[in-house]
Amino acid sequence: MPERILMSPEDIQRALVRIAHEIVERNKGAKDIVLVGMQTRGVPLSKRLAATIQSFEKITVPVGSLDISLYRDDISSLHLKPVMHRTDISTDVTNKQVVLIDDVFYTGRSIRAAMDAITDLGRPQSIQLAVLVDRGHRELPIRADYAGKNIPTSKDEEIKVYVKEVDGEDKVTILSPNKGATDEND
Amino acid sequence: MPTTLLISGGRIIDPSQGIDKVADLLVAKGKITWMGDKGTAPSHADLTTIDAAGLVVCPGFIDLHCHLREPGFEDKETIATGTKAAAKGGFTTVCCMPNTNPALDTQSSIDYVKKTAEIEGLVQVLPIGCITKGRQGKELTEMSELANAGAIGFSDDGNTVASSRIMSLAMDYSYALGLPIIDHCEDKELSDGGYMNDGWVSARLGLRGMPKAAEEIIVARDLALAQLTGARLHIAHVSTEGSVELIRRAKEKDIAVTAEVTPHHLTLTEERVMNEGTNRLLAYDTNAKVNPPLRTKEDIAALIKGLKDGTIDAIATDHAPHTSVDKMCEFGLAAFGISGLETALACLMSLVHSGQLDLKTIISKLTFEPARIIGTGYGELGILMPGCRANVTLFDPNKEWTVDSRDFASKGKNTPFDGCPFKGRVIATIVAGKVVYRDNPE
Amino acid sequence: MKTIEPNSSIATPETFPPPSMAVWQHNHILDLDDFTREEIELVLETADAMAEVLTREVKRVPTLRGKTVVTLFHEPSTRTRASFELAAKNLSADTVSLDASKSSIVKGESLIDSLRTIQALGADIIVMRHSQSGAPYLAIKHVNCSLINAGDGWHAHPSQALLDLYTIRRHLGTLTNLKTTIIGDIMHSRVARSNIWGMTTMGAKVVLCAPPTLIPRGLDSFIANCQLPNVSIETDIEPALENADVVMPLRLQMERQQSGLLPSLREYIQLYQLTTERLSLAKPQVLVMHPGPINEGIEISPEVAHGAQSVIEEQVTNGVAIRMALLYLIAGGKNK
To answer: Which of B33, B250, C195, C248 has CB 3.0 to 4.6 Å from C289, enough for a Cys bridge?
Structure first.
């Protein structure tokens, strides 16, 4: 079965706008918020959220990027992963509400690493998590504060997020390995 | 009690007599007694027949230059193990160098080697005495005493007699004895503690190099002294094009010089230090560390040409066994030398198979030419003539085998040919009528 | 003293998609002669990330937690060893440093035995410096853990060449077609040799400038045989420096004069010292580099060493970032 589209560009846009409003609502304003996008695709998503917040709150929320390669717990599988990017968080995070932004939320291990990284940089007042897609199968007790879409999946399925800034288009798809007995379109 | 041997149906190649034919050879009481057409040998009681069909039968190989390490370095080799290796390599006579401990610079040390060889040696051992005491290059040894004790020549091998004055005195002195001065030609100030040939590989590997000129300077000096004194000079392990040319011109002027080359200098270049088989990484292979060092393909071409036109008289192994401790270390710290007795024939056969040398030349340079240099004081060597001592080598010129240093009879497993596939193998070696080595059929 | 800052407008752009780790083929870092351009780029990108860690107040990440890095130095060196140790510590590795002058190595224990002991003690990565060329190639035949060559004899010093490339790129953006002039004792220089490989792989041109007695006789046929058309030799400093983008004088060991390779230091200084006047032959934005330690007044004048074009101190900082990158990439490598 080919890739099935789960979210169209419009779906993604609406989800991001909603999340942007939720972040401002939960934190009672945009003051003291720092958005930190997780490399790779969380970075452009965080920039879009900042732009959206800017448009209705008229406040510039600082945006940073975070690469968690140095905090992973599985260094010997390094050769399977892409090279690390820079971590670039120029604002001091101490006493701020740091909102981590990621594209897909799965086992939770990346977020654990991200929390270690953030706490090495300072002492935020809170760390919150916004994800575009939550696909379940958590292995650690971590939850998302803001989610674009909840998509129950099985472990052998693959969720792929495409963002314009990286992949040239916006969409979220699911790739299942086995051909189903019935096709969606039957 | 030596049995009577009939070596039957082999291709007998004896360059000293110009013989190359399929024939039978009869050996009795340690001597060659008869050679003739197949099947026509006079009958004998108690006859052992060796079927030599498909094999080459030739005079036993003579190695003018090898290191048996005894006395003093018995962890590297002994006369017993070294001669066993010689037999496996088809050598029936070996001339051992005096850089032992103590050095062979007195009559008693020469006696020791001879007596030990008589008891434990599998092949004939002819010692070479030192030129100078302790090989220090300062005082001449008692050459006459050494000669009487059995030295067939003099060498400080490993060292060069640096002083031209001492060298000329040595030549003057040996002239009267009619024995050769065998020189390891190396200007040590120029080679300055180098580890391999000074060239592009040493530049690449960051290793101190030994320039070719370091050999050629001493070769030229020695040739001038040979001309001056009239003495017999033998240049050990020639390795460069320049040396070959100097020797060629000296021979044109009838200077009494002879020369030898090793099988490894005929087949390996300096690149062997860098590359080991198909391994991508730099090898820094200490098994390719030897003095004189492996040189370039231009030098190999010149050495082969020198063999063909008679500039180089003999092929000698410079068998230099070492323990693994001496070799399995950093390149700069490793000992120089290749354990070469057991791969000599195979190496040379690779040149025959590739058409660069012919079989007759190889055999000639291993048999009657070295015999000429040694002279007849120790029997008529290098010849299969009835009445002469029966030193015979049988080899299969086409047998395929792969070198495995663990199978070496020598204690020295240091060879750059480990794992190399070769075509050509010694099948049997006979010394004074006795079979001292027989290849196990697989 | 003004030092030039890296040009942030030419800072290396992030590439999408990023180079994959699949390009990384090394279990050991021995020399740059078998590094592809992609692998070098990977090291430089990784070093960028490490450089960020070095700007933090707490310069520590948990990446190599639980790993043991042993430095085994047979040659005295404070800066390289300290650089590797700091790099390892910044990655939370445990470090053990063995100084050959103090340990059993001098007592006659062979290199191989020392390495086996170190491995048995649990080393994950060995960082080795040795006075004999080729020692690391022997070492890797006898240990299972990874090995980083911190300098072997005259032969190679890959981490130095990588930090040199990194430094140049931070300032000049690219190495393609840059003219890099290395001046000094080429014969005995592992820095020169590794830089030959690194620079040519990245597209730069290398000019090696030295008195004839300090140039290996086989160098031009080495260049020819290894197909390095971008490497040339020059005994005259002026043409060597003309329009150079990078100038790297090498340390001149005092022993070279004593062993007869040079008539005097005075003549060397007259012919080869990098002075302000000579430096003006190079491009205006030329970078002055040096592997250290500097012999001020010998190969380089104090004015140039501390001048506006000098990035010598920055090289040291970059060295820690590069070494962190190497430890990281080696620890995560394949074929374990």
So the answer is: C248
